[in-house]
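dude i think i finally got it to work??
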Amino acid sequence: MPPCGIAPDAVRVVAPATTANLGPGFDCLGLTLDLWNVATFTLAGEGVEVRVAGEGSDVLPHGAENLVVRAFRRLVDEAGAPMPAGLRIDCEVAVPLSSGLGSSAAAIVSGLLGANELLGRPASAAAILALATEVEGHPDNVAAALDGGLVVVVNGEEGLLTERIEVRPIEVALAVSQIEYSTSAARAELPTYVALADAVYNMGRAALVVEALRRGDLELLGKAMDDRLHQAQRLEHMPGGFAAMAAARQAGAAAVAVSGSGPSLIAFPAPGAAVGDVAAAMVAALAQVGVRSRPFTLATTDRGASAGPWPAAAGVETAAGSPSG
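look at this
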């Protein structure tokens, strides 16, 4: 993939939080949330240096092992280009780590888009999605982070099939649990085979979830957002999770689900319900069993990740969903 543009000296990438699965849409539904990481890439000095502020600043690697750097290197290798002799990445991290809110997807997308910009955009949008999925291991969060809105993504014979669906802005309440819960461990405990009746149960409801979010129909969303493939197994390892979901409904949530693989819970308040009250109810329920959590109140967004030269010139920042090549 030869470069197709003039490479800037510095690049800024903005990448969002995402929630995936949305109950029945296991590994095929992703939804973008209005919470953003910012990564600034500059070529200066020697080696690789990562500076982190915000979430995870005390635990994230500051060198080549950082996930942003690993994704950056993956696109450089794919493009057949040499790794820059000096790379500094300044990360402002707002998405909580290991929370089921797509922190790894945001990091991967940041690294890929940063490399693509610095190399003059050799990679297409489809190539970036394929690389992001390879690094992440599943496509739902990275597809939503790249495209924004609600994204349906499945594997097809010729690669990933994606459809981006604009959704009406919806407020969501989250309880971001502090328990340790890795995505890889969560996925390892899921069954390899499922009953046909359970697969059918999820397929129909996943279609209804998409339509409910597209229309902003929270009553339908509440009826459809149920699952028989993954949530029960994950909730068994989330102390207080069942009680917190019940508390969210009592506080006015129309629908509630495990966010991604957990341990966060995401709730969609019914009309007239206070989003802050729903978040507080989940946090309180978790506290009753000794689980610390943080309330977040966010909104869905149709914006995906964006990248462009830094300092930005007017009109040059490019939406991640359509990089030229």
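The chain has two domains: 10-165+308-315, 171-299.
im so relieved honestly
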